[in-house]
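Narrative summary of target 7.
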Amino acid sequence: MGRDTVELVRTLLAIAACLTLFATGSCSGTNGGIVRIEDRPLPALEGRGLDGAPLSAAAFRGKVLVVSVWATWCLDCEHDQPGFVRVAGRYAGKGVAFLGVNPEETSTAQPLAWVQHYGVPYPSIEDPSGRFAASLGYTGLPATYVVDRAGTIRYSIIGSTTSEATLSSLIDRTLSGDVSGTPSP
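Modeled conformation, tokenized:
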């Protein structure tokens, strides 16, 4: 293949990727995550926490809930975790809760070490089969869902959410009840 053909193929692939994103009604967050406006019920998320105690998303009804799907082997999850800890701290006591879902890890040893290492202040549900993560409709890690007080998913972020401003903006909009239009990054 000639150099011009390779360049043409790259250009066409880039255009196809942009059209795909445009067609889904999504917008890109400032650091690569795809932010989607949603309007669907949060599926039942209940199981054991990493500490072995029963844990359910239903316990957070009445609060804005941020659900983070993460794994210890996910590099973007590792990059995002310090920001999640800071945002969770800023919203503590303001009607916002965070809940992790840890899919496809068969032991709690590494996830518990992760939580301790990063000082994660919120619980995570064990999800070794990936069933809970799949019920959210995620397409890859990391994935984040902002849920309103009534249990409706209002926003999802697929991919890295390292922009604390983007996550905070989505939380603020959900807290205020403003879930229309495209969120600002």
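The first strand starts at residue 27 and ends at 28.
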